[in-house]
C-alpha cells in the first residue's frame, strides 16, 4: 500500500515538473534593465521576474549598468538564447531602436516599461505611468497649497536629453501654472535653477548643494523622482533649511518619500509604482505568447495617474515594499 502511494506521489510530482517545464519552454521572457543602481529600477526588475516565474515562464534578466552598448549586446544575446518576449527599460530612446527592431524581426514580442522608446521602434506597447498626468496633479496640488506665495523653485532633473524627465517637469510646471491661474488669476513662480542628479540620492544631494549656493532664497524643491529629492533634503538639513522649504517630486512613490509625506516632511509625489508597471508588462507579454493579446492594442498603456499627498498616503505606503 505504501509503495503504491509513493508511486502515485512520485508520478504526480513528475507530472507537475513536466507541466512546469512545458510552460517555461513556451514562455521564455527576457528582462533588460538599463540599470539596477536605483531602488526604483531594482524593484521593477524584482517584480517583473517574480511575476513571470509565477506565470510559469523561464526568465533571463540582465542589468545594462547604464551602458547603452551593453544593453544593445544584452538584447542581442537574449534573442540568440531564444526568448519569446522581451521586457525592456531602455537606456536611450533612440539608441535602442535598431536592437528592438531586430528583436521584433526575429519574432520576439517586445514590451517597453517606464522609459520612453522612440516611435520608430517596432514594439507592442509601452507600459508606464502617465508622466504628464501625474505631473499635472502634483503641480495643481502645489498651487492649491501655496496660494499667495511667490515660489522660488529649485528643479532637480535626471539627465540631459531624457524624455521621461522632460515630461515629468513640464507636467508639474503646467499643472502649477494652470492651478495658480485658476486660484488667483496670475502666475507667480520662478525656476531659479536646474541641477542634474542622475536619478539617484547622491546626485540629488550634490545638485542641491550647488543650487543652494547659487540661489539661497529657494523655497520649493521639485525633483523628477523621489530619490533625488530625498538626497536634496540631506543637503538642506546640513544648511538648516528644511523647515522653510517644500519638497515634492513629479513621480515615483518611493516608500521613504511616502513615510515623509505621512510625517508632514514632504509635500507630494506622483504614483509610479514599479511593481505595477512591471507586472502589467509581464501579463501582456504572457498574453502575446499565448496568442491572447487583444488586436489593435495601443502603443501606450498607462496606469492610473495619482498625486500622493498626506490625504491619501496610507493607501499607498507599504513598509515591506522593495521600493
Folded structure, characterized:
This protein has helices at residues 2-26, 39-54, 68-80, 97-105, 131-144, 163-184, 201-214, 226-238, 255-262, 274-289, and strands at residues 28-33, 58-63, 85-89, 109-113, 125-129, 151-157, 189-196, 220-223, 246-249, 269-270, 300-303, 307-308. With 323 residues, the chain is of the alpha/beta class. Helix 8 links the parallel strand 8 (220-223) and strand 9 (246-249). The longest helix is centred in the first third of the chain and has 25 residues, at 2-26. It is elongated and about 60 Å long.
Which terms summarize this structure?
10 helices, single chain, 323 residues, 4-stranded parallel β-sheet, alpha/beta, disordered N terminus
Detail the topology: elements first, then pairings:
Layout: H1 2-26, E1 28-33, H2 39-54, E2 58-63, H3 68-80, E3 85-89, H4 97-105, E4 109-113, E5 125-129, H5 131-144, E6 151-157, H6 163-184, E7 189-196, H7 201-214, E8 220-223, H8 226-238, E9 246-249, H9 255-262, E10 269-270, H10 274-289, E11 300-303, E12 307-308
Parallel strand pairs: 1-2, 1-3, 3-4, 4-5, 5-11, 6-7, 6-8, 8-9
Antiparallel strand pairs: 10-12
Helix pairs in contact: 2-10, 3-4, 5-6, 7-8
For the largest beta-sheet, the strand count, sense and barrel status come to: 6 strands, parallel
The main sheet orders its strands as 2-1-3-4-5-11
Structural class label? alpha/beta
Q: H/E element string?
A: HEHEHEHEEHEHEHEHEHEHEE
N-end to C-end Cα span:
52 Å
Low-confidence stretches: 1-25
Amino acid at each position: 500500500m505504501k509503495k503504491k502511494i509513493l508511486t502515485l506521489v512520485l508520478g504526480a510530482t513528475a507530472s507537475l515538473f513536466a507541466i512546469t517545464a512545458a510552460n517555461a519552454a513556451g514562455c521564455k521572457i527576457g528582462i533588460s534593465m538599463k540599470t539596477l543602481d536605483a531602488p526604483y529600477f531594482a524593484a521593477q526588475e524584482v517584480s517583473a521576474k517574480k511575476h513571470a516565474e509565477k506565470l510559469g515562464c523561464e526568465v533571463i534578466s540582465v542589468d545594462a549598468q547604464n551602458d547603452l552598448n551593453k544593453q544593445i549586446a544584452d538584447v542581442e544575446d537574449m534573442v540568440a538564447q531564444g526568448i519569446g518576449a522581451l521586457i525592456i527599460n531602455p537606456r536611450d530612446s533612440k539608441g535602442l531602436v535598431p536592437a528592438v527592431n531586430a528583436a521584433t524581426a526575429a519574432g520576439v514580442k517586445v514590451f517597453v516599461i517606464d522609459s520612453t522608446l522612440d516611435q520608430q521602434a517596432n514594439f507592442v506597447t509601452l507600459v508606464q505611468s502617465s508622466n504628464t498626468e501625474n505631473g499635472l496633479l502634483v503641480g495643481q496640488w502645489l498651487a492649491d497649497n501655496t496660494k499667495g506665495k511667490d515660489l522660488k523653485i529649485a528643479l532637480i532633473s535626471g539627465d540631459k536629453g531624457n524624455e521621461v524627465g522632460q515630461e515629468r517637469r513640464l507636467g508639474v510646471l503646467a499643472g502649477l501654472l494652470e492651478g495658480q491661474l485658476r486660484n488667483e488669476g496670475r502666475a507667480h513662480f520662478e525656476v531659479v535653477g536646474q541641477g542634474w542628479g542622475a536619478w539617484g540620492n547622491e546626485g540629488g544631494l550634490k545638485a542641491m548643494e550647488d543650487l543652494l549656493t547659487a540661489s539661497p532664497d529657494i523655497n520649493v524643491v521639485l525633483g523628477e523622482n523621489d530619490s533625488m529629492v530625498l538626497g536634496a533634503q540631506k543637503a538642506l538639513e546640513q544648511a538648516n533649511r528644511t523647515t522653510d522649504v517644500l519638497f515634492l517630486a513629479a513621480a515615483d512613490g518611493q516608500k521613504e518619500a511616502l513615510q515623509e509625506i505621512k510625517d508632514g516632511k514632504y509635500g507630494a509625489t506622483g504614483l509610479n509604482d514599479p511593481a505595477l508597471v512591471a507586472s502589467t508588462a509581464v501579463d501582456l507579454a504572457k498574453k502575446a505568447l499565448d496568442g491572447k493579446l487583444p488586436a489593435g492594442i495601443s502603443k501606450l498603456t498607462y496606469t492610473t495617474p495619482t498625486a500622493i499627498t498626506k490625504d491619501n498616503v496610507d493607501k499607498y505606503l507599504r513598509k515591506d515594499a522593495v521600493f
